[in-house]
Design a protein that fits this description.
Layout (H helix, E strand, L loop, with lengths): L1 E2 L6 H9 L8 E6 L5 H6 L6 E6 L4 H9 L6 E3 L6 E2 L3 H11 L3 E11 L5 E5 L5 H8 L11 E3 H7 L10 H12 L1 E13 L5 H4 L3 H14 L7 H8 L10 H18 L3 H15 L10 H20 L1
Parallel strand pairs: 1-2, 2-3, 6-9
Antiparallel strand pairs: 4-8, 5-9, 6-7, 6-8
Helix pairs in contact: 6-7, 9-10, 10-11, 11-12, 11-13
């Protein structure tokens, strides 16, 4: 658990881990140079399972890596200092890891709450490996406070990247997903608190970080596609770019290749190809100047994508 200026929430967050139905655990808390009373709150907790480290402010990735260097368990779970895990979270995830030896990373669904803990929505990411892997090409598919992974996998792929060009969690989940099976439990086992001071609200270059991670993900396993097509693919859904039919066809073909490498299951491929088609509808072949041009644009894209699928 990395902590930075979370005095209002950290006691509840810690309590949610110490109160798990699975009790054989250690909780490593790294205070990353807090300037509020967070350290006092953590110091007041006397449970012997808590290991408390304090360091100068280096950022969340560095704090997480400090914690990882101290872990002894075969399975490692992530928790943010303002989120809450329901009592059976760890037990349910441990059960899934025991049942599936090839599982590398497992998250859960989460209830989104406001600052005072009132529900405002939900994160319900895909639960099967193929859809998680495909969507990871474009965005993180795990609630970070719900993630559990194997220490052996981290030894293989490395720890959190402190490179400010990417989000440390999205980057690591992407690398882990290439090394083994992925899953999300279809149960709301975490309360994910959204604050106006959170990274999603205070990171000014968020889109640039996502695009950079997309480039890395899309390049993995494909070193021959020209950079212009990778760049167009990395921007889908972020910017509505005008493209010609040849570029749209090339992007479609490029991403179809990723789908075909992800799964051989016919039903999964059909589902992922349908998702891809909807994503590519964000490009513009015909400039949208009115209803007629919008309809013409959609029909043009339908034709290009249909002919690409037949190739």
């Amino acid at each position: 658990m990395p902590v930075y200026n979370a005095e209002a929430y950290v006691a509840e967050s810690i309590g949610s881990i110490l109160g798990q139905t699975h009790t054989d655990l250690e909780l490593i808390i790294v205070d990353d140079g807090s300037t509020d009373r967070s350290r006092d709150v953590v110091r007041s907790i006397t449970d012997p399972r808590v290991i408390h480290i304090e360091q100068a402010n280096k950022g969340v990735a560095a704090a997480l890596n400090t914690a990882l260097a101290l872990t002894k368990g075969a399975l490692i779970a992530r928790q943010d200092a303002d989120d809450v895990s329901l009592p059976t979270r760890l037990e349910r995830q441990l059960q899934r890891f025991r049942e599936e030896p090839e599982l590398a990373i497992c998250g859960t669904w989460a209830t989104i709450t406001d600052a005072i803990g009132e529900p405002t929505g939900a994160h319900e990411h895909p639960t099967d490996h193929a859809h998680i892997r495909y969507r990871l090409l474009f965005d993180s598919q795990f609630v970070s406070s719900s993630v559990m992974t194997r220490a052996s996998i981290l030894a293989e792929v490395g720890c959190f990247d402190t490179d400010q060009r990417v989000f440390e969690d999205y980057d690591l989940w992407s690398r882990i997903a290439r090394a083994g099976r992925t899953a999300n439990l279809p149960e709301h086992l975490v309360k994910y608190r959204v604050l106006h001071t959170g990274l999603s609200h205070t990171t000014h270059n968020a889109d640039e970080r996502v695009v950079e991670q997309r480039r890395r993900n899309l390049r993995h396993g494909d070193t021959t596609t020209e950079e212009r097509i990778v760049e167009l693919s990395a921007h889908t859904g972020i910017t509505h770019q005008h493209v010609n039919s040849a570029d749209l066809r090339a992007v479609h073909h490029f991403l179809l290749g990723h789908i075909d490498r992800l799964t051989r299951d016919g039903a999964e491929r059909r589902s992922l190809r349908a998702e891809l088609k909807q994503r590519l509808m964000g490009f513009h072949l015909v400039p949208h100047t009115g209803t007629v041009s919008s309809v013409l644009d959609r029909l043009s894209k339908e034709f290009v994508l249909c002919t690409t699928s037949l190739e």
